Amino acid sequence: MKPAPFEYLRPGTLEEALVALDHDDAKIIAGGQTLVPMMNFRLVAPERLVDINGIAELSRINETEGGIRIGALVRHAQAARDPLLKNAFPVVADAMRHVAHLAVRNRGTIGGSLCHADPSAEWPLLISLLDGGIEIAGGSGTRTCTPGEFFFAPLMTDLADDEVLTGVVLPRLPAGTGMAFDEIAQRAGDFAVVACGATVEMGGDRIVSARLAFGGLSDVPVRMADVEQAMAGATVADIAGAVAGCADGLEPNEDMHAAADYRRSLAPVLARRVLTAAAGRAGGRE
Amino acid sequence: MTDTPRPDRAQTIRPKYIGKKVERFEDPRLLTGRGRYSADIKADRMVHLAFVRSDQAHARIVSVDTSDAAEAPGVIAVYTAADLPELPELSAPSAMKDYHATVCPALARDTVRHVGEAVAVVVAQDRYLAEDAAALVMVDLEPLGATADPVAALKPDAVPLHDNVPGNKVLERSFATGDAPGEIAKAAHTVSGRFRMRRKSPLAMETRSYVAQYDTGRDQLVLHTSSNIPGIVRDELARLLHLPGNRFQVVSPDVGGSFGGKGSVYPEEIIVVMLARELERPVKFVSDRLEDLTSTSQAFDEIIEATLAFDEDGIFIALDAEVIGDIGAYSIVPWTAALEPVQVVSFLPGPYRTPHYRGRVRGVCTPKPPTGPYRGVGRPMAVFAMERLVDLAAAKLGVEPDEIRRRNLVRPEEFPFRIGSGIRWDRSGFLECLENAVAAVDVASFRKRQTEARENGKWLGLGFGTYAELTGIGSRIAVAPGMPINTGTETAAVRVDSTGAVTATFATASHGQSLETTLAQIVAEELGVRPQDVTIKQGDTSLTPHGTGTYASRSAVIGGGAAIVSTRALLKKVQAAAGVLFDVEPDTVETGDGEIFVPGTNHHITFGDLARAVYSDMKALPLEARKPLEAQEAFDPWLGTTTAATHVAEVEIDAETLEIRITRFLVAEDCGRMINPLVVDGQVHGGVVQGIGAAILEELHYDETGQLLSATLADYLIPTAAEVPTLEVNHIETELPDNPGGFRGMGEGGTIGAPAAIANAISDAVAHLGIGVEELPMTPNKLFRLIAERQEKE
């Protein structure tokens, strides 16, 4: 469990990083919480590692017009305690509690999690739920992806080998939107069997709009458009009916810890609990 | 001093240290990173090994091409079996009939028999370079087919794994008392089940690590090993490599856990020693976690089909069991493949009166790593099956689980009691532990909570796990049947040196048992010094002529017994010398807190004073009184002593997600006289946590071709603090066992009782669905399948 030999570069700026990535077999290292184990198992053996930890601008969280921008180097623990995020997207801190363990949360980064694109991981789900814009820098300039455009499959994204994911912009939700997150994992800190996040905007006793996203039910995080449509104009009492069988058409990955039908059975349960919790928090009612 | 009358001896007893909560002397070192493990050893010109291991379960080795690896940077040498003509083979002999010893070359020669078996070894300047080169070794394997399932492996069309093991059946053994099948046929009631515990890894925090150093000038070899059986490693390697014991020292320095996984002799230990001598350089091998999961011995993996017959009152009449033990590819050295599965049938009747018993076990070879000793050996599986049957019987009669146990446990007046397999229980608190646990949990109020919770979508369950185990086993009983190694004797040497300091030497090998503290408490109390002034030396074959190590809940009973008899012999010498010095009768001399005195007189010196008088001062004592203050005695309890406990688990299952939470866990145990309650609690806690792992998390998943699917700690799940409730431990002392200290072994019980208790608790929680637990670990995913299968049937 020792990595194969590699060349190590630590650029100080994004421009230098892009130059360093102009190589046949280079890989970015940020928190290293996924890449280093994979290298130790020799599942990957990049010839060059480009360490982006020296690029200070990538580790900031700041307000933008209409939203909040999270730099790619922001650590899970940093995101969990950030006051801007806590205020605008409390669901982030809720979700971060489920990311592995403290040591991993102190090192692992949002950019790394998105690029690894594990369908059970918390960040891909959150970015899907919150319609985040994924910012990518390359030799020919910068571009922004939607989650739907970005995630292809586990370990496979729209990011090219010579590009850097620089951050994510989360558009603000209407004031008073309730949010909630929950997941089922075999042990505290394990990858989710199924994870679920929701946002709910209430108008009186009626749900004005709702969003529902899952991890662990497919190759990529899944938004539940049908449920979201059914929720508009419904009441909290309608939630259970609306989410019944919501995962029936999906083909979750099976592994030794969870069969597909077990994962599917969890979806309506989590959806009901999370949507109900989000509705309860909407309008500052909690 | 005055001439007050000398008090009665009974009133001047030395300060008592046995039974005191003495904080562990190991902790300051181990908790601040100042421990010294095998992997910490550095030496000039040291080289590092990486093994090339089979990625197939069962295959013929067509060729191994090491030429590219040999040319790689930093590589000193690459070896296959063909390059080492003197390469020894590991084989575990036994006098047991119907047993076939397997042969395992230290590097695979013609055939590989499990994924992870070593095929070649690279020697390089560091482990990185060694792994780089290992990746260049080209191994051409021709698949021979594999029958990984143990039931299928016994069938005529199975692929045979060894030429000398017909039908893959490596052993068979039966026990019978009375006529169990006949009684079952005519009994009023029977319950049956097919129980299975899945294969598990011992998973010590420190992986297996070995460093061999060869002093060419003195022709001396030293092996530092993470083993918990350094004496057995020394004896076996000395035999295989033709080394006299005085030129071959095996040292177990600080060892970070074993749980049985470091308690066998391993091919890598042989290779490290051979190469140190061959290359005349220090050789280090530190296995990584992947190697640990694929080449360290594994645990359990048995299937029990059993039936329990009982009368209208729930009194047990007969027990019948067929056991298949999947022992993996090789019969483990030195214990043999019989160790784990035979103990399953030996202990299956447990602490209950079951007049008729028949149990048969067959050990089956499959292409997986060998099973070996694992904390609890055989009994976790036996207790799981029996305790499930007991609860099934209770359910059939509509009585509470505690009541049926009360009716069938061996009663105090019935000891010593021989169970159907021949195991003899000496007096232990079977019923006392049960009643203590029952009082603590209050079954009636639990039933109320259970009913209320079910309305709120929570399934609560309460489960008992009652067991007895044999510990501190003397030389009358082989740890594994027919095995030619004496594990029942322990020798201690205790001495006062010329500075007055006390050192006690043992052949034990503590790897978490706290023996540096507990043995020091014993020596201190017996000699009359303070525990912190006693240094315990162990885990080094150069210290003792013979000894085996620490395993099988033996060190407190047998090592502690040796400590007592040796220290008492030393005390006699101390009294004799002091008697001459004081000019009094030796038996009037007392000791305590490091001082030697005659009560009621002004004769009062320290151990240092006496040591000076004996060793250094040429005038204080006549020549004939200057005898070394040293004593060495052996202790062998001949038989074993019984430790008993009742474990109680309470679980909560989410009716929608099927998540299983253990919400309460209580242990009521009788381990005789406690040496140190902190250490007893720690052992119980650690054992129960491993039992929780076995019950709800830990499983080595092998596919039908023998590939390991759970080869990382992301897939092989062990309990973390989040999965473990507060553990309550109640200590019960009944009659003390007949050994010098009154101690019973208690290092394994946590692992023995917990899986059964949790299985019964989960079964209780889901009983209203018409299902129960027959397989461990039980997970939400498996519960989902059980419920679905049940619904399909309806």
TrEMBL record, chain A:
InterPro entries: CO_DH_flav_C, CO_DH_flav_C_dom_sf, Diverse_Substr_Oxidored, FAD-bd_PCMH, FAD-bd_PCMH-like_sf, FAD-bd_PCMH_sub1, FAD-bd_PCMH_sub2, Mopterin_DH_FAD-bd
Record keywords, A-Z: FAD, Flavoprotein, Oxidoreductase
FAD-binding PCMH-type domain boundaries: 1-175
Domain of life where this protein originates: Bacteria
One Pfam family here: FAD_binding_5
Record-level Gene Ontology MF annotations: FAD binding; oxidoreductase activity
UniProt-listed Gene3D superfamilies: 3.30.465.10, CO dehydrogenase flavoprotein, C-terminal domain, Uridine Diphospho-n-acetylenolpyruvylglucosamine Reductase, domain 2
Record-given protein name: Carbon-monoxide dehydrogenase medium subunit
Automatic annotation (TrEMBL), chain B:
Domain Aldehyde oxidase/xanthine dehydrogenase a/b hammerhead: 32-145
GO molecular function: iron ion binding; oxidoreductase activity
Secretion signal, residue range per the UniProt entry: none
InterPro entries: Ald_Oxase/Xan_DH_a/b (IPR000674), Ald_Oxase/Xan_DH_a/b_sf (IPR036856), Ald_Oxase/xanthine_DH-like (IPR016208), AldOxase/xan_DH_MoCoBD1 (IPR008274), AldOxase/xan_DH_MoCoBD2 (IPR046867), AldOxase/xan_DH_Mopterin-bd_sf (IPR037165)
Keywords (A to Z) from UniProt: Molybdenum, Oxidoreductase
Top-level taxon of the source organism: Bacteria
Any Pfam family the entry gives: MoCoBD_1
PANTHER family: ALDEHYDE OXIDASE 1-RELATED (PTHR11908:SF132), XANTHINE DEHYDROGENASE (PTHR11908)
Protein name: Carbon-monoxide dehydrogenase large subunit
